[in-house]
Amino acid sequence: MDIEQRPTEMVKFYSGNSLPLELHKVRVVQKLHLLPIEKRLEAIERAGFNSFLLSTRETYLDMLTDSGCNAMSDRQTAAMMVADDAYAGSQSYERMEVQVKNMFAKEYILPVHQGRAAENIVGQAFVHEGDQIPMNYHFTTTKAHFEINGGTLHEIYTDEALKVKSTHPFKGNMDINRLKDVIETYGAARIPFIRLEASTNLIGGQPFSMENMRQVRKVADDTNIMIVLDASLIGENAWFIKQRESGYAQKTMGEIIREMSDLSDLVYFSARKLSSSRGGIICTNRFDLYDQMRDLVPLYEGFLTYGGMSVREIEAMAVGLEETLDNTMISQSPSFIDYFVRKTDGLGLPVVTPGGALGAHIDAGSFLSHIPQQEYPAGALVAAFYLISGIRGMERGTISSVRLEDGSDLLADIELMRLAFPRRVFTLSQVEYAIDRLKWLFDNRRLVGGLEWEKEPKVLRFFVGRLKARGDWPVKLMAKFREDFGDSL
Ligand SMILES: *Cc1c(COP(=O)(O)O)cnc(C)c1O
Predict the structure, then answer these.
(1) Closest ligand 1 atom number to CA of residue 272
(2) Which end of the chain, N or C, is surrounded by fewer C-beta atoms within 10 Å?
(3) Boundary-marking domain end, from 325, 353, 386
(4) Of 325, 341, 356, which residue constitutes the final position of a domain?
(5) What confidence category does residue 5 fall into, taking pLDDT thresholds of 50, 70 and 90?
(6) Residue 23: pLDDT band by 50, 70, 90 thresholds?
(7) Spatial distance between the Cα atoms of 462 and 31, rounded to a whole number of angstroms
(8) Which CATH number do you get for residue 391?
(9) Interval between CA 271 and ligand 1 midpoint (Å)
(10) What CA–CA distance (Å, rounded) separates 236 from 332?
(11) Is 87 known to be catalytic?
């Protein structure tokens, strides 16, 4: 099926255009800061050319991540006011339980404070020394928790997954033959579960199809292995199935999510992405699985009716889950991303296609093809884009990788700048601004140079590491900006 034939939800204009019209109105606003470029140069230097070290006071559009910075609805904030403060047996928890059951049709539910806490519990309960865990792709926290318990990850993505330019509607699919090979090689006894991640985060928010999930289920049934679904981005995955997979256009979001849940033995999610700004859930219909996990919740999280969340967060999550089933609420972020991706692709910019969930990804390796990978093109692109726009993206390339024992960098498979689209946060004119400035940067890309380390931490260096520009390219880039934009912000 050609994805080009199936645009996401757009409203036709008389002029002939179609636009992803905002189907919400803004009732609470937060002031943003668009500093002059001279101040932005000072800010990025102060931040060691690392966007994690910028303050939102210095940022115009915060496109670092969608995690925990989605907009709340009026109904969510209203629900937070009626939250029932209680250590045990809170009515807020009961309301949330009703929504989780409604959405996932799972009987046994465990609350946790965020997604990685669910992974800690799933990891401790089911992953043992020497275990092998097949998955469509890893997420950073998943990998850490499963490895700490002695597991080895096997990423079984298809050949399409890491291609920058693709029209494949389901780049998050698992390669079924390779999955069978891994099971054959290691034996089902060493495989505690197969993990499927909805809207595969690190592949660029790319979904898997229901057909693929059914094939994975068949393999799981044949080999008697269970399926664990990471549902942190399930709303968007279900939305893409509705948009892109034949036979699903008429199905409701609820029916699609329910079908995905029914194909899984255990479901967990981070509510920082799904539905609210905090929290997480593990749920299953199998009492034996629940029983192996339950005692870990009071140990690490809190009592079984709050799991480390405040009752206000629980109320917001309950309403947010309900709103995930609403087309107009869930379509906003993927439709805006789709708009950004189609438009930048049309302008000839190296953006990853097709659009996925959570954000757009720019291929920094081809955007800045004159910068060797050892000089961090993705990091340089993030810094340069902040400098000329005030927009904060995230580096997903070699800076986010590690240094090897021989002292060299483990070069990333692909150098990406991620521009996250937190749900319902930005307007279309802000998206147009991002597209416009990115095009300007592309036309002036030769002025951008590489980065080098000033202070490099040993672990997770991308979070707080400091770099500097090689040469004085930021000053030259700023001069060209002034030449073209005058004294405009
Ligand atoms: C964010 C995320 C997690 C971790 O959740 P946190 O709430 O940040 O701990 C796990 N899996 C996926 C797919 C995610 O996107």
Answers:
(1) 7
(2) C
(3) 325
(4) 325
(5) very low
(6) confident
(7) 28
(8) 3.90.1150.10
(9) 8
(10) 10
(11) yes
187 phi-psi bin (left φ>0, alpha ψ -120 to 50, beta other): left
Residue 8 banded pLDDT, cuts 50, 70, 90: low
In the reported structure, the alpha carbon of residue 84 is separated from the centroid of ligand 1 by a whole-number distance in angstroms of: 27
The rounded Å distance from CA 105 to ligand 1 centre is: 22
Q: What is the pLDDT of residue 317?
A: 96
Q: Is residue 2 part of a domain?
A: no
Of all protein residues, the one whose alpha carbon is nearest to atom 4 of ligand 1 is 115
> Is the overall model pTM greater than 0.85, yes or no?
yes
Q: What was the pLDDT predicted at 87?
A: 93
Core vs surface per residue 311-340: b (16+ CB within 10 A) or e: bbbbbbbbbbbbbbbeeebbbbbbbbbbbb
Options 106, 272, 396, 461, the catalytic residue: 396
Pocket of ligand 1 contains residue 116 by CB under 6 Å: yes
- Residue 317 alpha carbon to ligand 1 centre in Å: 15
Asked if residue 318 has pLDDT above 90, the reply is: yes
Count of all residues that appear for the chain in the document: 489
Decide if 342 is catalytic: no
Answer yes or no: 31 catalytic: no
Same-domain status, 386 and 333: yes
Whether 90 lines ligand 1, by a CB cut-off of 6 Å, is: no
- Domain range for 434 is 10-66+329-485
Q: Which of 56, 140, 152, 185 is catalytic?
A: 140
